[in-house]
Amino acid sequence: MKLAVITDSSAYLSAETLQREDLFVLDIPVNIDGEEYVEGVNLTAEEFYQKMAQASELPKTSQPSIAKLDEILTSLKEQGYTHALGLFLSSGISGFYQNIQYMVDDYEGLTIAFPDTRITSAPLGYMVESVLKWAEQGDGFESILDRVTEQIENTAAFIMVDDLDHLVKGGRLSNGAAILGNLLSIKPILYFNDQGVIEVYEKVRTEKKATKRLVEIGKEAIANGNYQITVIHGNAPQKAADLRQLLIDSGVATDVSIATFGSVIGTHLGEGSIALGYTPIV
Description:
It contains eleven helices and 13 strands. The chain is α/β, with parallel strands linked by helices. The strands form three sheets. A six-stranded mixed β-sheet has the order 10-9-8-13-11-12, sandwiched between helices. Strand 9 and strand 10 form a beta hairpin. Helix 5 runs antiparallel to helix 6. The longest helix is centred in the middle third of the chain and has 16 residues. The radius of gyration is 19 Å and the shape is globular. The two termini are 21 Å apart.
């Protein structure tokens, strides 16, 4: 078996992983005030948050290109690949997953699977890196599918946003609720539900209490397992460092990574957002 792994630019991946020949990444463009950018090509995460703060309206993100995916899949057989596994951002925040299912049986000589990851960002990146590692050590395609499915079923991310306005603009919260929430200093904790849709998990008064609650959620969730734990932030490195230290001091984990929200999820959550993501190590 020769396996190609395909993902999109919402996945948080190391520079070393991005250099791999068996990894193919579909760009997700973001439009800011009429200008189109691709993170990692002509836009850094830091530049995205600067431009979003100065923009006259909320940035708009597009789906990855189906034509580009077709181009990749068409070329794989010539390169000696026998299998392809596509891990893309959650179907709950993009229609891309539904739009590509017809492609699974369209390429003769190539076995293809597109499971719904129901997540994005660092947990998605960790799934991609896990699959590459399993393929490298000689695991079969069905075994890899089973293992990544186990990861998908037991992965979660809980998010605290700094500003409720982005949730209103993104249609995830009413304007009245946002005004009331801001007046009462409510910090909603969001999460990816079982369908991969971002929903409100709890409403907590004050940022300090919400941060403490994130630690409690993490402690409860990963008490009986081995997980890759990541703190993810929207241009808020000090908040991320503080939450990481709290997780370590509370005995949740001894090893906690830090990652950044890119333009895709950052558009919806806004600057200052922070999240706890965890994925099982299988």
